[in-house]
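In practice, a research group might receive sequence data for several interacting partners and want a quick structural hypothesis before committing to experiments. The following worked case mirrors that situation: the sequences arrive first, and a predicted assembly follows.
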Amino acid sequence: MTDYKDIIIDHYKNPRNFGSLDNADISMDESNASCGDMIQIQVKLSGWIPGQARNDKTVIEEMRWRGVGCAISTAAASMLSEKIVGMNREDLEEFGEAGIVEMLGGEVNAGRMKCATLAYRGLLKIFENNGN
Amino acid sequence: MFDVNKIRNDFPILQRKVHGYDLVYLDSGATSQKPESVIRAMDDFYRNTNANIHRGVYEMSVESTLMVDGARKKVADFIGARTEEIIFTRNASESLNLVMYSWGKDNINEGDVILVSRLEHHSNLVPWQELCREKKAELRIIDVDSEGKLKIVGGEEKLYEEGGLRVRLGSLDKLVDAKVKLFSVTGASNVLGTLPDTLTMIRMIKERSPDVKVLIDASQMVPHMKVNVTKLEADFVAFSGHKMLGPTGTGVLWGKKKILSKMRPFLYGGDMIGEVKITGSTWADTPSRFEAGTPDIAGIIGLGVAVDYLENLGMDNVREHEKELIKYALEKMAKLEEEGLVKLYGPRDIEERGGALAFNVINVHPHDAAQILDSFGIAVRSGQHCAAPLVTSFGVPAMVRATFYVYNTKKEIDYLVDKIREVPKVFEV
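A structural hypothesis for the assembly, expressed as tokens:
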């Protein structure tokens, strides 16, 4: 049961930053079509003026999330919500799938990568659809 | 009559270990394992016969053509059909798409209705959604009850309109009128195992729409029970070769000759033409018209040998064996359900279901449950099983599914039940 390390079980049972933000700058939805998992992510940003494109100075200040998911996707969202504070676009892209695997204890079954990256894929949307 | 231990010896893969445990393969609904005879037939073909079909007058080309013709005959006999009515495809999805492109595009018009059910695999739903949207036709979907059986009469009717597609959902009785041009339905649910009474439904529909065409998705039927296409009273039957002990890359569409003969080709290219001139071409007769290009020759030959294997076992014996397994599994799982450990989905009556068992471990996501079971060597599928509208109608995002076949045993079911007990323990801190 290499994938279910204590840290994963901990974040799964006590997810951090679970819920919603009253004053979110952006909300994003992401889902896994094959398993029905869904996540809504809300973030507060700095270095960004609403209505204008997010740029290299835009930094994630706070993240809240909610949704239904398995232990892997839930733990990954919970851990990411702490990790990504202070990250800009470049930091987030550099973090990548390798960062997720490392964060989850260094081993993720290939069949579960979609679970592991659900929240991360949602976060990348901050820098897409720019200006919304 | 049915010595499962002898059968198991015919499947080399059942010898392998997974995470140090004996493999317990419970995902034949996705694809079945292959017996030695099928593997060997394909290997022999590549070693000794390999040549393209219908292309050469030389010995090997003639041999491989005869082998493909022979496989077509075996498949035809297996389902009570004529050889020219058997079209080889890559899989059942392609068979269903073939009907959509070659028959649907020319025969479904604005205001017509295509009728399906909520049990459908995405491959028997999405093509019809797209065709209805394109043709401004209406898609009607027979809803399921809480046991996963199709609703025949009564209940509420719902109408949806989204993105240019009109969808009506309700019981069969409310959805059938003279506008129904195609009834495309599964013969056995790939998720819940439900065996809809297609014959009664077809007769009911034909009373109100005599010219309706009927397509049966028999992907979960042909591998598991005796099927005779004439008795199904259908016009088209689609199924996969790889779910019935045959190789991947093989599927079948059966269609009535008089309908196939009027259909346009599916793909254009080699081997499907009559005469080709610079200014245009004519089409070969069925089945060649629908089999452009070099087919999966080795795969088709393997499929023929898979049919031999099943014929040898006897399809009535196959069905009996699976009924015994599902009965046993349901009894065992019902006990777990009483203990509050699992939730079961699908009909409880053995006569109304095939060998697919959908369940969830309480408070555990199906992906987690499946991965924990995998750590004990058990292969089950988790997710939406390419049937999202069905799965979500039970108020859950996903399910775990165990499917049984000729090589599965009661001992494996005991092992599954035993290991399901281990699943929640992983999350106890």
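Before designing any experiment, note the following. The mean pLDDT of chain A is 89. Residues 6-127 of chain A form a domain with the Sufe protein. Chain: A fold (CATH 3.90.1010.10).
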